[in-house]
Every structure is written in structure tokens, then in C-alpha cells.
Write a structure and sequence with these properties.
alpha/beta; 366 residues; 9-stranded mixed beta sheet; AB_hydrolase_fold; Carboxylesterase_BioH; AB_hydrolase_1; Rossmann fold; Alpha/beta hydrolase; disordered N terminus; hydrolase; disordered C terminus; 37% helix
Length: 366
């Protein structure tokens, strides 16, 4: 795999030690902290939440570090609800991808999926955090697939929420987002919506990504309005959005070993796929193909969720992830018992192609 097509396996030295996030910094949930990590070519905002002590007698499996990658137009804040739901299970970190949230654009201006994946790899290598439980949503899901395929040493498990894997043809409600990549159309859109207030723009965005925008509380909506307004005032906002959208479209057209579905075939990590029945950007129909592509897979379909299940239904996603950890713990325990010769004559490895079914009642969203 060429270095221009996938994240580099080499460990990149840090240009400087992590420094405090610049003001005005990100909005942090209780229990969160943030810092800026400087790497060659990148300055990345990283949001952290330490693993909370578990109550005595708790039987949910504790795990190692988790790392979260947001989607197009998002930020690390998209993962705050899920990180809180998993606070008793993992120590979580989420980054703002280059050009998004509070991370400035990358030095090389590369917003391809491979470029974003390279930033993730360099950060994980810099902080020696692998293997991690890697989470990705939408664009971040495609980035996570790229990372898991190229650097299996960095990924313990993979959880994908509505991953942006190629769907041909895309559902009609996803076309307007894809058209952002067409030269001149973003300018036409801005002229046509010049009179829109930040509230109206935010409402349109929420109608696109949420299964039921009416369930969004007023404090969350107002915070989203303020954040949208802040981003619109950034001089590079539209350039980053357009180039990253083009990166997704370009990735959809790749063939051979660099195609995203071919990359998915190479993923060795146990994988949890989460889809929303009301997703207007990534159709739940792709779940069927994903189930036969990833080697070691289980799925969660939430019928009334949209594109951001980790924000809409964090407890359901957290439960499915904990079920995955429990499953792996039992599997490893059974394998260890078989290896020692207790209870069986020999240990039979089911192989990486074995697929697991839906995990618990959470698989139906109940």
C-alpha cells in the first residue's frame, strides 16, 4: 500500500509537547478535559474523559482506552454523550479532525479519507495508545476502517456508527450532501440562503442527521446554534467542508485494494456495526453488505435513530459495546480453557471469517 493512499505505519515524533487548548476552547461536558497536541503537519484538539470507578459488584467488563472519530462537519463533542455512557468501562479520547471543531487545517491541505486516517495514526502513535477500541461515525467511520485495515496493531475492536461506506446508488436524501463537492454549488447555496438565521441553519442540519429532531432538548439546540455560528465565521469552514466531502466522493470511486469495501475485508478487529432506521445519509440497507464483508461482525439496528445514534441513543450503543466486550471475554476464556486441555480434547479456532449475530435485546433498539 502506497504511503499516499494509506496512513503511514511509521511512528512520527512530536514537534512539541501537548499544550493547553487555545481560547475560546471547546464546550466540555462534566468530567471532560481538552488539550491541543502538536504533531508534524497537524495541531489536533483532543477531548478526554477518564474511566470512572465502577460500583462494587458491577459485572460489566472493563476495557482499555477508547478513541472516537467524528463525521463530516462534526467535532469531538459529538461523542460526549457516549463517552459519558461508557465512563465506567473505558477511558475515552476523541479528536477534532484537521479543520473541524477546534483543530486548524492541516499543513498539507489533505482532507482525503487517507489524509484524515494519517492524522489519527500519527496521534495514536505519538501517544502510544494502541491498541484502542476505535469508534467512528459517518466520515469518521470510513477513516476508522482505513486505520484498522492499515494498522491492525492499533485497533483492539472497531465500532462503526453509520459508516460512510460506498452505497450505489446513494439514497436520494444523501444527494444534497454529496453535491457540496461540486465546484460552485456551495457558493450558490450560501447566496440562496443568505437570509437564513443561525437557528434556521441549525434546524435544517438537525432535520438531516436526527431521526426525530423534536427530541433534541432546548439547551442542546441552543448550544448547536452557537457552535454553528462560530464555525461559519471561520475563514476556512467552507473549504474544509467541501474538500472533505470531495474526499468521501473520491473514496467511493476507488477500485482495487484501496476501495473502502476492500479495506473493510482486511479488518481483523472484532467489529460492531450500528445503523439507524431513519438515517437520511447512510441507508441501513448497507448493513447487509457490511455483515458479509467484515470478518468478525455483529450489528445493532436502532429503528427510530438517524445518522448519529451515539448522540440520539447513547445508552443503546453503550450497551451493545459492553455486550461486545462480554462476548470477547467469554470467547477468550473459552479459548484459554480449550488450550489448557480442560473440558475439551483440542482447541478449534473458528477463524476470522466467523460472524456473530445481533447482541442482546439492544439489537432491536428495545
Amino acid at each position: 500500500m502506497r504511503s499516499t493512499d494509506s496512513p503511514s505505519p511509521a511512528v512520527e515524533p512530536a514537534a512539541a509537547a501537548p499544550v493547553a487548548a487555545p481560547a475560546p476552547g471547546p464546550v466540555l461536558a462534566p468530567g471532560e478535559s481538552a488539550r491541543t497536541v502538536r504533531l508534524p503537519g497537524y495541531s489536533l484538539l483532543v477531548r478526554s474523559r477518564d474511566r470512572a470507578p465502577r460500583p462494587a459488584g458491577a459485572d460489566s467488563a472493563a476495557a482499555g482506552p477508547a478513541f472516537f472519530v467524528h463525521g463530516l462537519g462534526g467535532s469531538s463533542q459529538n461523542w460526549s454523550a457516549l463517552m459519558a455512557a461508557l465512563a465506567g468501562t473505558v477511558q475515552g479520547e476523541a479528536l477534532d479532525l484537521p479543520g473541524f471543531g477546534h483543530s486548524p487545517p492541516p499543513d498539507d491541505g489533505n482532507y482525503s479519507i487517507a489524509g484524515h486516517a494519517r492524522a489519527v495514526v500519527r496521534l495514536l502513535d505519538r501517544e502510544r495508545r494502541g491498541p484502542v477500541h476505535l469508534f467512528g461515525n459517518s466520515l469518521g467511520g470510513a477513516v476508522a476502517v482505513k486505520v484498522a485495515a492499515a494498522r491492525p496493531d492499533l485497533v483492539g475492536t472497531l465500532t462503526l456508527v453509520s459508516p460512510a461506506l460506498p452505497e450505489v446508488p446513494p439514497q436520494l436524501t444523501a444527494w444534497p450532501t454529496g453535491l457540496i463537492s461540486v465546484p460552485g454549488l456551495p457558493q450558490l447555496y450560501m447566496r440562496a440562503t443568505r437570509g437564513w438565521t443561525p437557528e434556521r441553519r441549525t434546524s435544517a442540519l438537525m432535520a438531516l442527521i436526527y431521526g426525530d429532531p423534536a427530541l433534541v432538548g432546548e439547551p442542546v439546540r441552543l448550544a448547536a446554534v452557537r457552535e454553528y455560528q462560530r464555525r461559519l465565521e471561520l475563514p476556512y469552514f467552507w473549504d474544509v467542508l467541501v474538500r472533505s466531502t470531495r474526499g468521501i466522493v473520491d473514496a467511493y470511486t476507488l477500485s482495487g485494494q484501496h476501495a473502502l469495501w476492500r479495506q473493510a475485508e482486511r479488518v481483523l478487529a472484532p467489529t460492531l456495526l450500528v445503523y439507524g432506521g431513519r438515517d437520511k445519509l447512510v441507508s441501513a440497507r448497507t448493513a447487509r453488505r457490511a455483515a458479509t464483508t467484515f470478518r468478525d461482525v455483529r450489528q445493532l439496528l436502532i429503528p427510530d435513530s438517524g445518522h448519529v445514534a451515539m448522540m440520539e441513543h447513547p445508552e443503546l450503543v453503550a450497551r451493545a459495546f459492553r455486550d461486545l466486550l462480554e462476548e470477547l471475554a467469554h470467547r477468550d476464556g473459552a479459548a484459554g480453557t480449550a488450550r489448557t486441555g480442560t473440558g475439551t480434547d483440542a482447541w478449534t479456532d473458528p477463524g476470522p471469517g466467523t460472524a456473530a449475530g445481533p447482541t442482546s435485546a439492544a439489537a432491536t433498539g428495545s
